[in-house]
Write the structure tokens for this entry.
Amino acid sequence: MAMAAAALFLLPLLSCFIGTIQSSLLPQHTDKITHLPGQPLVQFQQFSGYVNVDQNNQKALFYYFVEAEIDPTSKPLVLWLNGGPGCSSIGVGAFSENGPFRPNGQILLRNEFSWNKEANMLYLDTPVGVGFSYSTGKSSYQTVNDEITAKDNLVFLQRWFLRFPQYRNSSLFITGESYAGHYVPQLAKLIIQLNKKERSINLKGVALGNPLLEFATDYNSRAEYFWSHGLISDSTYNLFTFGCNYSRYVSEYYRDSVSSICSRAMSQVNKESSRFVDKYDVTLDVCIPSVLSQSKIIAPQQNSERIDVCVEDEIVNYLNRRDVQKALHAKLVGVRRWDVCSNILDYDMLDLEIPTISIIGSLIKEQIPVLIYSGDQDSVIPLTGSRTLVHRLAKEVGLNTTVPYRVWFEGQQVGGWTQVYGNILSFATIRGASHEAPFSQPQRSFVLFKSFLDARPLPLEF
């Protein structure tokens, strides 16, 4: 009897002990970040590491995961992808835009408007060759395209959930900006196809900032934006519209066949708009951080225009520190230093011309809420093109306006403008924001993000 009683007493303790051991043996345990160099004290957990997506080519995608500040298991999971194609979501998104920290010299400062206040944030360097992601087979860097990237991203998610099973059933929102206007819809499409066979990923919404959705519409809205903001003259506007529009120039540029009329048009545009104005935020002074590098790829310039980048680049300096790479469980493979945008990736730039706005339409038909937002100071993918595409899509899928075009507020100031169709497709601008809205307007971007997650209208009054 005494032995039986003792066994009953010890059983709960033994179960607790076994549970602790099992928890420590979860694959995620080896990815846990104990402390980033220069990091202030925080209560939330951080993880980073590699997920192999192709055993044959040793394609390993690098991620950085920040749990929500409060009660993470009850909060949604948000995947964030930066564009380029070929720019780092960790360097741009996590450490420049909406992550918990921003480098400042030798230390990290807290981002007061970090998105992990409302969600578990997962940042992915994709495709291989970007950021800390790598492949031991050099052929993996050649002729990479949207289709390959989407498939790799899906495999990453599936295998990441094996490592973090506690988030398998969480509401998933896929977000990003710029060329993520291709990455995000294509990944969402594959998830929907997968779920029809075996429901395994709980996709709840998609949000895209200043996204490339339809090549001609997005790019050709640039001329009107330049002209309306006083960057080019009437005659140059006509040349840039009727002589050689921007989509034609970019198409010729990536085919190495720039015509004389397009060369003349771009020379005139560059001359008048000046290299002393940042095209990714026309109100920003010319000295810009590497956060804007992703824009330079989708907006190629003639050799005559050189963009002045700040000498001190906090993100590049921080992520090239050996102690930082060790803390992140990151390594450099095939490159000598970490860069914001890859110089070893050979991406099929003609994929720029493949429209993804139709995929957005298919997501809406599957009842997946979509938010398209624009920093209104961006001339690379201007708000006018995005607004035109969203309005046209709403008509095509038969959605009526449910929130008429109106202002929304952040604090006591106008945060931007918004319009909603069928309570499932939303367009919003962020007032005073650049191509990378969370970088230039963090508080307004956070209000927009929180409203989207909560499926609530943007604030109508202060």
About this structure: The radius of gyration is 23 Å. Confidence is low (pLDDT under 50) at residues 1-25, 303-309. The chain has 15 helices and 13 strands. The longest strand covers residues 401-410.
